[in-house]
């Protein structure tokens, strides 16, 4: 009988515009090298789930052959609430202002995956809005910049409860509690190399040699673009 390393169930519920695309590229290379199952969801715009959708997703995740790492843009799921074994969570966040800037330009100009990417993402955006100077947007209180959604990150750690989407102390405190109890690491994008080293130390069967892969010339070139795109 094969003895699996602990933990053998890892979920990376990646926060948008926090460098996650670079990390997913790394994970694909690491999964091939270290023989773990990487499942990366292609659902990018559904972070909130009904109770039925939560159970279905958690069961699907639990049925992935171990060791596995599952990744998706989705608010924290409480597996134990439904008597399903809770996996270990990891995540990476960034300075909320930097995240707002990244999202602002991403909506207008897409990312490195294709020059026409922005036209596909926001086809209804008119030229004067697409090329609106961000300083004008902020100083003249355009809707997009007067409510820059700095609270966006917290529900990824607070969870699926409706109150998690209401900015306030309750959501923040619940998010902090979940981080303490369920997340092995929550890294900071501005310190990504240190985060990768810590992941290698804490999850060697997933992340051994990650920094060398990250520093390879091809990935560095892609990763520079990813700071604005993921």
From TrEMBL:
Compartments where found: Golgi apparatus membrane
Bilayer topology annotation: Single-pass type II membrane protein
Keyword Transferase: yes
Pfam families cross-referenced by the UniProt entry: Sulfotransfer_2
Molecular function in Gene Ontology: sulfotransferase activity
Keyword line: Glycoprotein, Golgi apparatus, Membrane, Signal-anchor, Transferase, Transmembrane, Transmembrane helix
SUPFAM superfamilies: P-loop containing nucleoside triphosphate hydrolases (SSF52540)
Cellular compartments per GO CC: Golgi membrane
Coiled-coil ranges (or none): none
InterPro entries tied to this protein: Heparan_SO4_2-O-STrfase, P-loop_NTPase, Sulfotransferase
Signal peptide, first to last residue: none
Family recorded in the similarity comment: Belongs to the sulfotransferase 3 family.
Protein name in UniProt: Uronyl 2-sulfotransferase
């Amino acid at each position: 009988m094969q003895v699996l390393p602990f933990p053998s169930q890892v979920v990376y519920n990646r926060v948008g515009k926090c460098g996650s695309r670079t990390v997913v590229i790394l994970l694909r290379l690491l999964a091939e090298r270290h023989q773990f199952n990487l499942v990366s969801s292609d659902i990018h715009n559904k972070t909130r789930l009904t109770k039925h959708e939560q159970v279905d997703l958690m069961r699907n995740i639990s049925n992935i052959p171990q060791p596995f790492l599952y990744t998706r843009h989705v608010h924290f799921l409480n597996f134990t609430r439904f008597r399903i074994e809770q996996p270990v969570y990891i995540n990476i966040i960034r300075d909320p202002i930097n995240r707002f800037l990244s999202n602002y330009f991403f909506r207008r100009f897409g990312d490195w995956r294709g020059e026409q990417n922005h036209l596909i993402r926001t086809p209804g955006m008119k030229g004067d809005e697409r090329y609106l100077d961000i300083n004008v947007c902020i100083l003249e209180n355009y809707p997009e910049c007067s409510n820059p959604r700095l609270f966006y990150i917290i529900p990824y750690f607070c969870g699926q409860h409706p109150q998690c989407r209401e900015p306030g102390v309750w959501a923040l405190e619940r998010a902090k509690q979940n981080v303490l109890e369920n997340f092995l690491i929550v890294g900071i994008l501005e310190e990504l190399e240190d985060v990768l080293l810590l992941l290698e130390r804490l999850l060697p069967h997933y992340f051994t040699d990650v920094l060398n892969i990250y520093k390879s010339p091809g990935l560095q070139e892609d990763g520079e673009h990813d700071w604005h795109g993921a």
